[in-house]
TrEMBL record:
Keywords: Membrane, Transmembrane, Transmembrane helix. Pfam families: MS_channel_2nd (PF00924). It comes from Gluconobacter cerevisiae. This is Mechanosensitive ion channel. The keyword Membrane applies. Residues 197-263 form the Mechanosensitive ion channel MscS domain. It is found in: Membrane. Its main location: membrane. The chain crosses the membrane at residues 15-39, 70-91, 97-117, 148-169. Residues 385-399 have a biased composition (Low complexity). InterPro entries: LSM_dom_sf, MscS_beta-dom_sf, MscS_channel_2nd. Residues 354-399 are annotated as: Disordered.
Amino acid sequence: MTQHFVSILFAIRSYFTWLPASVVSVLMLVVVGVLAFYCGNLVTKQLLRIPGSRKAALIRRIVSSLRRPTRLMVALLAMLFSLPAATGFTAAQEDNFQLFLLFLLILTFGFSAIMVFRIMTEVYLNRLASREQTDDIMIRSHQTQIRVLRRLTEILVGIVTVASALMLFPSVKQYGLSLFASAGAASLIVGLSARGLLTNLIAGVQIALTQPIRMEDLIIINGDWCWVEEINATYVVLRVWDWRRHIVPISYFLENQFENWTHNSAAIIGVVFLWVDYQAPMDKIREMLNEIVRGCPLWDGRVFDVQVADCDAHVMSIRIIASARTALQSWDLRCDIREKIIARIRDECPEALPRSRFSMMPPGPGGQEPWEQMAPPIGRPPPGSYMGPGMGSASMSSD
């Protein structure tokens, strides 16, 4: 088939013998490349019209993303097959042009392979995300493994593609061989300079296998609540509740301690502390809290309890625990409990509100309180006594 194609090109070339051979060769290669480019465009358009099923939709998405690389690869292949008919070039020029076309073809093929792998993983991740189970550990585990391994695969395919393309040129090939063969200072310098990158790449593989963190895990780092938004090959993007982002090296999660609130499950128990007076009716407060928690849709129905946890000279502390499906729902549940129980205590049993008590004078002799010492006698004053304004009681006697 290739010989038949070349013979057709020779037949067409015979009509342009009146032009210089080099000009005819260049024009022939350009025309062949352009025609092949538009033929590839027609083929991709036909593939995009495939109707129907899920597999057909996947093929359409791949073809749509690879339209430009595919057309470029078809044009490069057509120009490579046309080189034997380009007799206007010298042998050295033909070899150099062939190496250049192969170089572009390898780079385009590697880029296309990365795009296909990325599209297939995205389709699988979207299928996982479309499931109704929002707290599925297996789903988040698969997402983490696929995202990390996809980054590493893209880096590996990119390195292999560039290395394969550069190895076509003899000068670069000899330089690479001499560099790999040297085991002295050059290799030591390269190793030290790539230590951080290699550390994070190896840490990324360990994260994908052991999974101390997963996608959308809730972790506590530097005192902030953060959700794992992205796990890349060398770093992790953490989304804070106020929309800030922490960019953390991936090796941090293997070398430092941190809290993961959703490692086994997203469900969590929230704690609310309430300070009340000693005269607070605990039975009534328990009933009110029971009504509030059981009537709240954020409570998952698993854990609820009310206990007097502590006390001091003035108030006692009530500890309320209630479970929720996620940490965000637990936060909203605790806020709802605080708001409603404070309002009900204020309206139904205000004697339970905290208050301060103090005495201005110490007890007198015999254990009497200050107001008992200073209180005037009950009833009429004794005969002969006089109560002057602003004065205490005084007794006047006469002979």
